[in-house]
Design goal:
The complex is a heterodimer. Chain A is α/β, with parallel strands linked by helices. Chain A is 44% helix and 19% strand. In chain A, strand 7, helix 10 and strand 8 form a beta-alpha-beta unit. In chain A, helix 3 packs across helix 4, helix 7 packs antiparallel against helix 8 and helix 7 runs parallel beside helix 9. The relative contact order of chain A is 0.15. Chain B has one domain: MetI-like fold (Orthogonal Bundle). The chains are: A alpha/beta, B mainly alpha.
């Protein structure tokens, strides 16, 4: 079972088609970098993974659980249950050709009931068996933002503690005070790890960008996530602060954290990634080990991109 | 008429009527009472409107938008007239005094403005705050109560203070219905003395002292709040 899987993701913002059918799989412990020019759709792809953007079509899976609605085009059994498919078969088409035609021409009807009760029941069955609540999934998949997004109204310690404490409340933990003490201890351990334990009671406005981002990272870590998403974590930092953030991320990668990183730091991507995705014009145009992607790029757009950034 | 006589008359009217006849206390009392009722009711009602405007129900959102636009797009005096005649028809079970009618009218007017203040106060909080909270798996309710509202309140309170000042000035419209607030004293004194300008100037000074004091107090509160965060 993969840690994270996106299947044929499309994302439209009105008439703007940002992602045009992207599929990829992230295995446990893998570190994946997503590179590409600005506006290529790499951030949107990352934000679709935790549903900060809802994909227009396609599915997102995490640890065997479906986060998005069911996309009927990805399931042969659902397509075969549709009236559209049955009509095509009756008109003399064979199974393979009918499915291909339906997929290519988006023939399934928008309203589930119009495709017949069998189709509707299958859609519901798939959903029921696999779907997980977005909030539950996000607690195991934290995200680090370009602009840090520390909560301005909370101290550093409260920033780190908020989500674990609220999660304990959602889960109706019996001894909340004991749980809080435990969470506080863990938060302080995390702060010590990045050498900022003296900032525990400080508000974010008093911190440097590098400090903010490292705290944002440990805020994510406090949820004990299975996978971490990084959306250009160093792009808003002054050059002298990039190193401290990258060092912390490297540390996480070495400790076996599953990470998906959208980045412009090519040296970093080359060093820590197991796999690099080059996203361009809404597609994954090239994908492979850092040696392949940086050392022997095949796609002309990738070569062009690398010649500009390296 | 020289400046000297105006100042002299102003002083005389102030002493004789505002102090002697106690018009200062009653006038200011009614004005502040009316403003306080309008602001408090407006704040409560305005919050409800703002919450309603964020709801999923399209019809509710439409009704609220329509109400707010109408209240902001028509003169307050007209609204007070309508309240003056309609409120007694609606609340037939209770004897509605002109003061109560005007209070209802001003409250509804203020609710429309307050709902916009709250909405824009919430809207001014950086979208990244919501995204970070939701990305950590917090529900939209927790995100609102723990992250967004505490930050929005800092945008909302100063604007709410300004609304209070605006309302104090707007209560002068209530003098049309002779409810006894500060502007009503003008009609009373004018009727006795026929001395218009000094009376108006007296009233102006009293209004100014009220609003000026209030905005200074707001300023102090704002500074304290900023220091607290």
């Amino acid at each position: 079972m993969s840690m994270l899987e996106v299947k044929n993701i499309y994302k439209n913002f009105g008439d703007l088609h940002v992602l045009k059918g992207v599929s990829t799989t992230v295995e446990k412990g893998e570190v994946i970098s997503i590179i590409g020019v600005s506006g290529s759709g790499k951030s949107t792809l990352l934000r679709c993974m935790n549903l900060l953007e809802e994909p227009t079509f396609g599915e997102v899976w995490m640890e065997g659980k479906l986060l998005t609605p069911v996309d009927p085009y990805l399931h042969f059994d659902i397509i075969r249950a549709s009236k559209t498919y049955k009509g095509l078969i009756e008109s003399g088409m064979d199974d393979e050709a009918a499915i291909k035609k339906i997929k290519d021409e988006d023939l399934l009807l928008e309203k589930h009931s119009q495709e017949g009760p069998e189709y509707k029941a299958l859609m519901q069955k798939h959903f029921k068996e696999n779907h997980i609540d977005t909030n539950l999934a996000r607690r195991k998949m934290s995200m680090v933002f370009q602009q840090f997004n520390l909560f301005n109204n909370l101290t550093v310690l409260d920033n780190i503690m908020l989500a674990p404490v609220e999660t304990a409340k959602y889960n109706k933990v019996k001894d909340l005070n004991a749980e809080k003490a435990k969470i506080r201890e863990q938060a302080m351990t995390l702060l010590k790890r990045i050498g900022l334990e003296d900032k525990a009671d400080v508000y974010p406005s008093k911190l440097s960008g590098g400090q903010k981002q490292r705290i944002a990272i440990v805020r994510s870590l406090a949820m004990n996530p299975d996978v971490m998403l990084f959306d250009e974590p160093t792009s808003a930092l002054d050059p002298e602060m990039i190193g401290e953030v990258l060092d912390l991320m490297k540390e996480l990668a070495e400790a076996g954290m599953t990470m998906v990183i959208v980045t412009h730091e090519m040296g970093f991507a080359r060093e820590v990634s197991d796999r690099v995705l080059f996203v361009d014009e809404g597609y994954i145009k090239e994908e492979g080990s850092p040696e392949q992607v940086f050392g022997n790029p095949q796609n002309p757009r990738l070569r062009d991109f690398l010649s500009k950034v390296l | 008429m020289t400046l000297g006589t105006i100042l002299h008359d102003m002083w005389e009217i102030f002493v004789k009527y505002y102090i002697g006849e106690n018009l200062l206390a009653t006038g200011v009392g009614y004005t502040l009472a009316l403003s306080a009722i309008a602001v408090v009711c407006g704040a409560i009602l305005g919050s409800l409107l703002a919450i309603g405007k964020m709801s999923r129900f399209k019809v509710l959102r439409f009704i609220i938008t329509a109400f707010v636009e109408v209240m902001r797009g028509t003169p307050a005096l007209l609204q007070l007239y309508i309240a003056y005649f309609i409120v007694p028809m609606v609340f037939t079970f209770a004897e509605m005094s002109p003061f109560a009618c005007v209070a209802v009218g001003l409250s509804l007017n203020s609710a429309a403005y307050v709902s916009e203040i709250i909405r824009s106060g919430i809207g001014a909080v950086d979208k990244g705050q919501t995204e970070a909270a939701r990305a950590l798996g917090l529900t939209s309710r927790t995100t609102m109560t723990k992250i967004i509202l505490p930050q929005a309140i800092k945008n909302i309170l100063p604007a709410l203070g300004n609304e209070f000042v605006t309302i104090i000035k707007e209560t002068s419209l209530a003098s049309t219905f002779f409810v006894g607030e500060l502007m009503t004293t003008y009609a009373i004194i004018k009727g006795i003395t026929f001395n218009i300008i000094p009376t108006l100037l007296d009233i102006g000074i009293i209004y100014f002292i009220m609003t000026f004091t209030l905005s200074k107090l707001m300023g102090v509160a704002e500074k304290k709040m900023k220091a607290g965060a």
